[in-house]
Amino acid sequence: MEKKERSKPKGKAANAKGRTSQSKADRTTRIMNAITNTSVVLMSVMMGGFAKAMVEATGEIASGMAGSVDPEEGERINQEVQQKLPEIDGEMKSMVSEMRKDLYAQVGEKRKEIEPLLSDPVFDLGPKIVDRYEFGLPRLTEELDDASLVQYTRLLVDEDPNFSRMFQELTDWINTLPKPPEKSVGD
Length: 187
Hints:
Elements: H1 10-69, H2 71-109, H3 111-114, H4 125-131, H5 146-157, H6 161-176
Helix pairs in contact: 1-2, 1-5, 4-6
């Protein structure tokens, strides 16, 4: 009697291979989102602070100049500038939203180029840092919408101790990541 060779069901072999490529894709996505989202939050805070400082400084200068001639006019200008702050804040949020969309698009376009660079295990630390914290928001390892990024930015601005700790760990991590090789002039 001839012994039949048992073969693995084709579906299981395909699934195992699919899971491996899926987990690699998930790893890459989580790493790239952690870097991108951390960068967007940092840019949001910096741009928001810079815009507010510039508007306040401009308001002080304008109201001071006008106030030296007419104190009432100086106060009116100062109040007018203060009323413009929410409008400027809205414009800053719109700029950050566009930056976020552009960054996600660029990362998507360059994914095939970026993936091989992420082979170093040091890249895995970022998602591990994110996974240790919970804020009741989608995680920084996910593609985030504007509202989630605003909430994360608010946590940083409000100096939430847990978020500040996590954000510091993430920025330290980003600063230790290997730099991509520079392209030569002919590339």
